[in-house]
Every structure is written in structure tokens, then in C-alpha cells.
Design goal:
The protein is of the alpha+beta class. Helix content is about 40%, strand content about 15%. The chain has 2 domains: about 60 residues, no CATH class; about 40 residues.
């Protein structure tokens, strides 16, 4: 599906001394100039239709907004393993991740 937007799009036209004009383009048809609506008036032909992908993105965004920022189950599992003394830290993994993070930050800061 395609996004169809019709209505007023005001563009300066240097051919007529900078006066503004509208261009309407129907799907598959040539662009035809029209007069802009008077100030304060709206055009009844203005429509916007979203593609299926845009609709899915809106739905996903709503679902993500309703999710908690923190995985409370994982936090609780880590908390319990720390309290029981069974939590183990892999120093090599931590060092690798820190080095990778620093490398990413440095390359982004220098524009590479």
C-alpha cells in the first residue's frame, strides 16, 4: 500500500515572481497546479492513509510502551543468587564488554 496525501502543499514559484501555488498529484497522473485555499480555510480533500507497515509499527510502539523498562524476574533471580552466594562474575566477559563499549564510544565520538 502507498501513502496518499492530497491537498495543499504551498511552494514558492519563481516563474511568477515568487507567488505561491499548489500542486496536486493524483496517483499515476501528472502534477496539476491549483490555487491555494484562502487563509483559515481547510480543504475537504486532505487525506492521509497509512501503509500496513506503518500501522504495524504503531501497534508495536504501543505494545513496547506498555512493557516495563526492567525485567523484574531477571532482577529478582540475580538478587537471590547474590544473597545465596551462588552469583558468579566472569571477569573476562566483563572486561571484553567494557573494551567493546569503550571502542564503540570512541569510534562514534571521532566520527569513524
Amino acid at each position: 500500500m502507498a501513502i496518499e496525501i492530497t491537498g495543499s502543499t504551498v511552494n514558492p514559484n519563481p516563474a511568477n515572481g515568487g507567488e505561491t501555488s499548489d500542486v496536486r498529484r493524483e496517483q499515476g497522473g501528472p502534477a496539476t497546479p491549483t490555487r491555494p485555499p484562502e487563509t483559515g480555510q481547510s480543504s475537504a480533500a486532505d487525506t492521509v492513509s497509512l501503509t500496513e507497515t506503518a500501522s504495524q509499527l504503531q501497534q508495536l510502539e504501543s505494545e513496547l510502551a506498555s512493557l516495563p523498562v526492567v525485567d523484574t524476574n531477571r532482577v529478582e533471580a540475580i538478587r537471590q543468587s547474590i544473597q545465596s552466594g551462588s552469583f558468579e562474575v566472569d571477569a573476562n566477559r566483563v572486561a571484553d564488554r567494557l573494551t567493546s563499549l569503550e571502542s564503540d564510544l570512541f569510534s562514534n565520538a571521532s566520527g569513524q
